[in-house]
Specification:
alpha+beta; 8-stranded mixed beta sheet; 6-stranded mixed beta sheet; 7 helices; elongated
């Protein structure tokens, strides 16, 4: 049988024409040719019991049927596009394996299939949360297994070109200037750093956790997370997605917090640094994350707050990364009761309950802040 597809179990083994793995997400992209058609696939968490597949029709290699071939789908075969949605020769066409390539979009959860360098099909990251197959050069209108590419082609082509340039940058010495700029911003904030932990496990992308002290407060910031673009941001911020898709995590606590508790908090901070690309989501102002039991005794979750929205809370002046601003996200521990209040609204209305000094809002002192 073929690698797998949404319509598994084929009489003749399909041929994989081209394949690629996302640089940052557990997603495989591949184009596969069967007896009658070619499809482009994204396979999320392959081999797991929660794997997901997105499929986008590319072309028919056999004559197009007049209607959707329900019988083929029932047999577990990839369906040809019906004649009404097929924009190429209805008798079928061929694609040449050597002409195909795959470009991952910047967020790493969507990809494009190119033929001789020209956009052929594209599955955007937002397709994971929608009943949408993708765009294809040969589709007509909103066809059953792909949408027409024509009207969106200029925008999508520009995005693919930008994504290709982005990944080339990520392969070509991006880390040193980002590291120097981020570390310089932190030390401009709290002075010489105390500790520097590599938290990437020796794998791409490079990431670190940096700590320091200022005015009796211990600080920790991630370094390098902002090199990556978080998935799904464009679904919520659309035109200004570039202002929200790069972040560094931050945590602050009173200087007398026991070292054991401090290190437990840093362990959580480190683990969360890969969360958006592991779960194919994003983190932003007002979001919450549950804490593992006992991680911070008495606290059930953390509330994330965008430092740019808290003018009285000091924060390092992180330089832009690849022309886009960095969102410093403070992690503020909250109790179960505070968590229940925080998730009642998309906006962090819980902030209205805070009665302390504004500049101490993000500083953990072992006590609830909002109730």
């Amino acid at each position: 049988m073929g690698i797998m597809d949404k319509f598994s179990k084929k009489q003749k083994e399909p041929e994989v024409l081209v394949e690629s793995w996302s640089p940052v997400c557990d997603i495989q992209a591949f184009a596969e040719e069967s007896d009658s058609c070619v499809y482009f696939y994204l396979w999320r968490d392959p081999g797991s019991d929660h794997a997901q597949v997105k499929s986008c029709w590319v072309c028919n290699t056999a004559p197009a049927p007049n209607d959707i071939d329900e019988a083929a789908m029932d047999r577990g075969e990839a369906p040809r596009m019906p004649r009404s949605g097929c924009g190429h020769d209805p008798r079928g066409i061929r694609v040449r394996k050597r002409d195909l390539s795959i470009v991952w979009l910047e967020e790493g959860d969507g990809a494009a299939l190119l033929e001789a360098g020209k956009l052929l099909a594209l599955i955007p990251g937002w397709a994971w949360s929608h009943d949408f197959h993708g765009y294809c050069r040969h589709a007509v209108g909103t066809a059953p297994f792909a949408w027409e590419l024509t009207q969106a082609e200029a925008v999508l082509t520009a995005r693919v070109e930008r994504s290709a340039a982005y990944w080339r940058t990520m392969e070509d010495g991006y880390w040193k200037p980002l590291q120097e700029g981020g570390l310089g911003a932190m030390e401009g904030f709290f002075g010489p750093h105390e500790q520097y932990f590599a938290i990437d496990g020796g794998k791409f992308p490079s990431k670190a956790l940096v700590t320091g002290r200022k005015d009796g407060i211990r600080y920790a910031f991630t370094l390098g997370v902002a090199a990556l673009c978080m998935p799904h941001v464009e679904q919520y911020h659309q035109e200004d997605a570039g202002d929200h898709r790069r972040m560094e995590l931050a945590f602050a606590a009173r200087g007398d917090l026991p070292d054991e508790d401090w290190m437990k908090a840093l362990g959580f901070l480190s683990g969360v640094s890969g969360y958006p690309w592991r779960e194919i989501t994003w983190l932003g102002h007002g979001h919450t994350l549950l804490l593992p039991e006992g991680r911070i005794p008495g606290f059930a979750a953390v509330l994330l707050l965008d430092g740019r929205k808290l003018p009285e809370v000091p924060v390092p002046a992180f330089p832009p990364v690849m022309g886009e601003p960095v969102c410093p996200l403070w992690m503020v521990p909250i109790t179960k009761a505070e968590y229940d209040l925080a998730v009642e609204s998309i906006e962090p209305v819980i902030l209205e309950k805070y009665q302390g000094a504004p500049e101490r809002l993000v500083v953990f002192d072992g006590k609830p802040k909002f109730l």
